[in-house]
Amino acid sequence: MLRQLLIVFSMLLALASPAAALGISPGRLTVDWQPGLQQQVDVVIFNNGAETNTFELQAEGEVGNWLTLTISEVTLAAGDNSRVTAMLKLPDTLKPGTHKGGIIAVEKLPSAGVVGAKLGVESQVWVTVPYPPRWMDVKLEFSNQTGLAIYLSNPATETVSSSVKVDVQRDGQTISSVDKGTVVLASGEGRNLDTVLSWDAGNYTVTATLQWDGGSNDDRIEFDLSEPVKPIVPPTRLPVTLIMAGAAALLLVAGGLMLMRSEKRAKKR
Amino acid sequence: MGDSNILAAFLLLIAAGGAILTLSGLSSTALITGTTNLTVVSTIAISLPTNLVDFGLMFPDTTNDTTDNLPLPFTIQNDGNRKVNVTISATSLFSTAVNPTDFYKYMIAASGEGTCYIGACTNTAQYYNMPSADSLSICYLNFTNSCDTALIHINATVPVAEPDGIKTSTVTFLASQA
User: Fold this and answer.
1) CB of B86 within 8 A of CB of B75?
2) How far is B92 from B101, CA to CA, in rounded Å?
3) What is the SS3 assignment for A65?
């Protein structure tokens, strides 16, 4: 027992090499979408550290699917830099809006026996597709604290009236399909939809589908819950009239009690 | 035309030229200005001036963190010329508690330079479980030298059933343009 108690732990969170530092340029490249556009993308990786370092390169995000890097890693002496090339090939069709992703350079630690922190930097590559006159965006997010959030916005120039449907699948089975009615948003407007639900443990896929005259849009998220989640329900606002009626009822009861007491006292006398 | 005439004509020409220069406001000492153009390219660059967190020896069911500066927390610095967002992810520290877990947490805090980020979307004020996948943790970290750093505090609690030995974790900080 004593031996067990005396088990000691040594925990280290350390860098493999002293004072690693790196950079990438440019910080962001924005490309206007054209069907099937092919374009060379150049980034420069800097080793600002005091020692030779190797950096792993990868494309990430939605745009990362359309980027092909010519190399997967680069080794740079202290203070050195290197130009890295990627080919960007855009799809023939894309949803309106900004599609994000980029090229990431992350320190590659020596493999065995090394513990610590790794630094990484990203050169963002964003692809923008212009909005038609009528369009509605939908964004789904999930957190254990607030549950599912559905955010709608109208980035286009005209008012849009759209139906909203939310489908929830748990472990591959549809457990809920809710019609949230019609939402009307003027140009530049946004709105959160209430979705107070309890979530059992499982693997979820949630899809929100918008449908309006002449167009449609959707968003989908997937998440795993190892334990049930019950989001905190925000306190509902009671109507002023209800509050006033409640206060009046309390006053009435208090007045009645006082009246009864005074009657009892009068009888005793 | 004799040589003297040619010389006179030449002198006249020079005199006339001088008069023209004087009339037009030009002279041999006139300043000619030009314009130099350049574009500074955005660069995303970060470093870890304090890059070692060593808790040393710990017993099971005990907790240690870096808020008392023993050991010092990580310090991240923005060396580029753009404000950056920083995500954090880490490999699990304990074999009996996989990330994210209450046994291994982090918290962002202002450095000696002050608050160099936007607090509203930065994970400050309380410890958060260390994520296994990239999670946005520092928003709009400033790049001006007077204020371009943030602290990342680490909190570790050894699970009771954790086997003895050296425990390691690699924390990855990924910076992108804010």
Assistant:
1) no
2) 9
3) coil
Q: Which of A104, A129, A154 finishes a domain?
A: A129
Q: Which fold has domain B46-177?
A: Jelly Rolls (2.60.120)
Instruction: Give, in order, the Cα–Cα distances in Å from A242 to each of A249, A268, B75, B127.
Output: 10, 39, 54, 41
The pLDDT tens digits of the residues spanning B82-114 come to: 999 999 999 999 999 999 999 999 999 999 999
Contacts of B18 (CB under 8 A, 6+ apart): none
Q: Where are the domains of chain B?
A: 46-177
What ipTM is given for this predicted complex?
0.80
Is A23 in Cβ contact with B46 (below 8 Å)?
yes
Please enumerate in sequence order all residues whose Cβ is within 8 A of that of B58, keeping only pairs 6 or more positions apart, or say none.
A8, A9, A10, A11, B64, B156, B158
Same domain, A113 and A199: no
Q: Which residues of chain B have pLDDT under 50?
A: 1-2, 18-26
Whether A169 and A219 share a structural domain: yes
Q: Which residue of B has its CA nearest to A6?
A: B59
Q: What is the pLDDT of residue A142?
A: 87
Task: Report the run of H or E that residue A256 belongs to, with start and end.
Answer: helix A240-268
Q: Which of B41, B50, B51, B158 to mutate to test the interface with A (most CBs of A within 10 A)?
A: B51
Clarify whether residues A37 and A114 are in a common domain.
Answer: yes
Those residues of chain A that have pLDDT short of 70 are: 1-19, 110-115, 196, 231-246, 267-269
H/E element, A259: helix A240-268
As for how many domains chain A has, the answer is: 2
Quote the CA–CA distance of A181 and B81 in Å, as a whole number. 47
User: Does residue A38 sit in the same domain as residue A66?
Assistant: yes
Choose the final residue of a domain: A85, A103, A129: A129
Q: List the domain range (segments joined by +) for residue A57.
A: 19-129
Mutate to test the interface with B, among A2, A6, A11, A29 (most CBs of B within 10 A): A11
- pLDDT computed for residue B25 by the predictor: 46
Contact B93, A116 (CB under 8 A): no
